[in-house]
Every structure is written in structure tokens, then in C-alpha cells.
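Lab notebook, design round three. We kept the backbone fixed and only want residue identities now. Task for the bench partner: fill in a sequence for the structure below.
Input C-alpha cells:
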């Protein structure tokens, strides 16, 4: 029996669009993902083509490089977030430059991985994105938040956060901002992962923010963490 045949139906149901201008990389990535039971709905070699295919194929997750011919990956993410808010974008790139990371997250990417990530990390990133969560490695999250700390702190935002969130939600937000995933947050606060997920949903709804990394950016800008 093949690995893909052993994969759970939930994993197989995730439909992914691969976006990278290197054919060999896309082919290798497709093979790796399909071996793990992930459905690759299509491939694109440029940002504009990615936006068109998102319209046509409505994938669950787009795995996207940032530096491609034509419109940038950042602009493609922005357009995808606008036309297909339920399609999640996971960045997979060689660039760990602070500006690239920050702009991708603010454009709407819900995860950011480097191309030296393991297949397991990529699968976790895709699965997290598919259910509306985000996976950003602690090192990358640290870069984003360090960059944000260099910007102006907004006391008004801090007041708004404290007014909207309960103390427990504030605790969860602070742990998100330190790059911790749901399991780590659950262990630290001695609550279940499901409770963590519920708290995060409430945080995003109350702050009117799309994903957890954007919530972390907002929290850092406010100065509460």
C-alpha cells in the first residue's frame, strides 16, 4: 500500500496550488506532496497566473514563492486575499529578509516558511493554513516582530486590545506573539488545544484581524508585548 493510500481523508481533501517560477522545484514539490496525500490542484510560474488560477480552481491553500517574473508575490498575495478570502496563502521562499516577511504577512499570507524547511514542516504549514490557522517558524516570527517593534508604538491600539479581550485572551495573544503554536500555548496555560483554538477565534473576531500572525503584529505595534 502506498503512503498516499494510508493518508487520512482529511489530509487528502486539501487542494493546493503551487506557485514558483522554477519548473524543477515545482515538479519535485508536487511529487513530495502527492506522496503524502495532498491534492495538487494546479501549478503557476508567475504571480498573475496564480491569481487567475485561484479564480478558476478555488484551491484551499496556495504555496507561493515571493520573487517571480511580473507582479510580485506580495502583490499576488494581496490580490488573492481580495478575490478569494477563503483561500489561504503559505509563503515558501528562500528569502528571510525582514521586509519580505513583514510585507507578505501584512498582505495576507497566513504562513511563512523557508525553502530549507522539511517536508513535515511544509505539510504542517499546509494543514494549518487549510483550517485558517497559520504557521510561522519562531525565527521568522521573531524577525517580523523585531521589525514591527522598530515602528511607532500605538497606545490607542493597546487600549483597544485591553478593552476588547479578556485576561485569558490577552495571555494567548502574548504567547502567539512569541511564536508559539497551539499545542505549546495549551501546555503553557494548562488548557486544551481546542480551548486555545476557541480563544484565538475570539481574538481574531474581536480585533477584526484575519490570522494569528497579523494579530501578533497588531499586539506588538500596540506595545502590549
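Proposed sequence:
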Amino acid at each position: 500500500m502506498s503512503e498516499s493510500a494510508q493518508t487520512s481523508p482529511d489530509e487528502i481533501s486539501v487542494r493546493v496550488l503551487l506557485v514558483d517560477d522554477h519548473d524543477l522545484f515545482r515538479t519535485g514539490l508536487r511529487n513530495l506532496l502527492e506522496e503524502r496525500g495532498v491534492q495538487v490542484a494546479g501549478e503557476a510560474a508567475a504571480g498573475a497566473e496564480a491569481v487567475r488560477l485561484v479564480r478558476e480552481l478555488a484551491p484551499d491553500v496556495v504555496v507561493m514563492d515571493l520573487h517571480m517574473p511580473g507582479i510580485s508575490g506580495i502583490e499576488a498575495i494581496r490580490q488573492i486575499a481580495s478575490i478569494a478570502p477563503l483561500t489561504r496563502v503559505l509563503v515558501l521562499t528562500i528569502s528571510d529578509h525582514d521586509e519580505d516577511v513583514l510585507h507578505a504577512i501584512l498582505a495576507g499570507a497566513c504562513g511563512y516558511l523557508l525553502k530549507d524547511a522539511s517536508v513535515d514542516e511544509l505539510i504542517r504549514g499546509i494543514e494549518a493554513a487549510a483550517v485558517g490557522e497559520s504557521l510561522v517558524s519562531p525565527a521568522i516570527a521573531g524577525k517580523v516582530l523585531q521589525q514591527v517593534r522598530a515602528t511607532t508604538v500605538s497606545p490607542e491600539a493597546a487600549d483597544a486590545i485591553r478593552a476588547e479581550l479578556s485576561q485569558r485572551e490577552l495571555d494567548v495573544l502574548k504567547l502567539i506573539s512569541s511564536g508559539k503554536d497551539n499545542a505549546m500555548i495549551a501546555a503553557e496555560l494548562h488548557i486544551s488545544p481546542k480551548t486555545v483554538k476557541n480563544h484565538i477565534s475570539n481574538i481574531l473576531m474581536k480585533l477584526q484581524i484575519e490570522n494569528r500572525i497579523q494579530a501578533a503584529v497588531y499586539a506588538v505595534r500596540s506595545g502590549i508585548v
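Keep this in mind before ordering anything: The longest strand covers residues 39-44.
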